[in-house]
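Progress narrative, Year 2. Work on DUF3360 domain-containing protein from Pseudotamlana carrageenivorans advanced from sequence curation to structure prediction during this period.
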Amino acid sequence: MSTYKKLHKPASEFASRTDYLNHELQIMKPRRFRINLPGRDFRFEWEDLVPAFAGTVGIVAMYSSVMMAWAEGLTEAWDHITLGKAFAIEVTRVEMLIPAFLFVILASGFLNPRANLAGNHGPMIPLIASIALAGAHPLALAILIGVFGLLLSVFKGGSRLVNLTSKGVAGGLLIFLGFTGGIGQIETIQAWSMGLSNPESGPGSMGYLGLIILGVTVIVYSLLARLGKRWLSIPACAIIALLVALIGGAGFDLHFTTEMGVPNLNPVHWWGSTEHGWMLGMPNMQHFVASLPFAILAVAMWSPDFLGHRIFQEMNYPKKTEKVLMDVDDTMTMCSFRQIVGTAVGGGNITSSWGTYMIPAAIAKRPIPAGAILLGLMVIGVAILGSPMDVAVWPPVRCIALLVGVFLPMIEAGIQMVKESACAQAAGICIFAAMVTNPVLAWALAMFLDNNGLIGDKARAKKLSVVDRLVIPLSILIICLMAMFAVGMLHYKYGIPGLL
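Result:
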């Protein structure tokens, strides 16, 4: 049997670097839940630094956003709780230390390189305030998400849902998420620049700086795409945005407040009383009931999230690389365990597949393990040093990294998938439904309509079984509707109150 070590050839034997990277992907044979070793099963390449850096910047920004949302929501929801920035930073560092070692370095780096890293559930961030106000408990929510995710992965439900989502529906979902996410980052940069106060000209006089940063980003990103070096976009654009902001006079807005050290890693400190940590104590039955619909919603959103990340691999990897594509069910298993363990030790992240790592890794034509190990080490280093977190969450760095590393590639991938008229129709309905409601319900509705030949390719519906055509899509649609009505996700758009 030919092993990776025997089939490996030095880069000098190939006509181009791309040919070498493609060959590496084609000869890899990851060992599932067995030890994978550098040199024997994979190699470190300098391209692995790109997704590692991108993932580090992205996760610091995401984790910080999650913890600040929890702090604000719980402070508003409970009379005896007052949480602020210091709490959010410490909990963020807890999330970056233990889970990074267990589920990034060990799990995805050495034990199962086909499981994508367990990162952050970005679409759930805007809901955290509502979760807290509904009386949910972060630890109860984590346990429920972990249990539901494990059940879905055991019965191979994740991969089945991916197979039931057509290219048209998936393309529409990517376009919508990429467009709305990109607009959000642009608005954040502009709001940040308008909030800067020039001592000579007064408040709001530096609004032009955001426009300059965005303009330079467009030029740099276009040049990298033209040169075939788009995988360099996150580090290159983030560093350039940092320099432009500093040269433009915004340096006074960057404050280094996080000190070097290790946060309190004792779970009792975080959950053991109502005087320290989260100040909530251990969850009771009422907390589990309040957390239930949000947990269902979070797990229901995993499949389209995982699908988008796997699509990036399929679009950028050469043929005969099925063995290195991320396994949806294994990724779901890792996310489930990581959700429970990460929160049990004191964290508060809501987990999903790590997009700010996978998307750059796919573009750079690199498999999961080597970059995962580097990323885990970077994340641990940042958590201990402290001050790099202040740079990573600074708006010009954070927003540009997410813009060029996640949202623009999502739009491009979605457009590439929508080539035929049937796919375009399914994509259009998915985008329209997402605009009317939200991406999760749009995915469920479009999948149901598409699999029954009501939109998209009518011939595709004839190839599906009754279970794949009716039972599963309709069940997913009903579950999503029930969860959304329960938690009041349609309240802000249409005034429909939640049942809880």
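The two ends are 58 Å apart (CA to CA). The chain has 23 helices and two strands.
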